[in-house]
Design goal:
single chain, 180 residues, mainly alpha, Rossmann fold, 2 domains, three-stranded parallel β-sheet, 8 helices
């Protein structure tokens, strides 16, 4: 029974490869976005249809892809200036820390693939899915703490350079005293 077609970019290795193989096992028809011929051949040998796709190449991008890119580019403009000032550094630091954790501790590709499969086959999909022990712990803490306390906790967990920046950004603004 085929559940539908799914395009997975970055299917040559890691999470992308695990995802296409897992979705194939669930009954989907995954199209595996790959750049190199040898990756396409390897996936074809496993019963997965490769799709020559390079997301960094403008010629590979379809109109729907371009529409998604345009919407993503608009997102920062939709964030109020005050929020960007207060939380812009925090968002950048979180992205950097997430990449660092993934590289150092690793996140099992199959765990991510299974969560994607769950989301695609759920009768009533959730807005967010958590993968890994750390994500679940952070979510549990975030539910119980006020936003500023959670921001401070995250800032404390980040590396020294970001920590100084975030302390300065998260400090409540004080009115000018009128003194020179």
């Amino acid at each position: 029974m085929e559940l539908g077609t799914v395009v997975v970019t970055g299917a040559s290795t890691g999470i992308g490869e695990a995802t296409v193989l897992h979705l194939k096992g669930l009954g989907f028809e995954p199209l595996a976005g790959v750049r190199r011929d040898e990756d396409a051949e390897r996936l074809r040998d496993q019963g997965v249809e490769p799709l020559a796709l390079d997301v960094t190449d403008a010629a590979s991008k379809t109109p729907i892809w371009k529409k998604g890119d345009a919407a993503a580019a608009e997102m920062p403009r939709n964030v109020p200036e005050e929020a960007q000032r207060l939380y812009g550094g925090l968002a950048d630091a979180l992205r950097a820390e997430t990449r660092k954790v993934e590289q150092e501790r690793g996140l099992p590709p199959l765990a991510v693939a299974e969560v994607i499969g769950t989301a695609l086959t759920a009768r009533r999909p959730k807005t967010r899915y958590l993968v890994g022990r750390d994500a679940r712990i952070r979510a549990a803490i975030a539910k119980r703490l006020p936003d500023r306390a959670m921001d401070a906790l995250i800032a404390r967990a980040l590396s020294g350079g970001y920590r100084r920046i975030l302390r300065r950004e998260l400090r409540p603004s004080r009115p000018a005293s009128g003194r020179p």
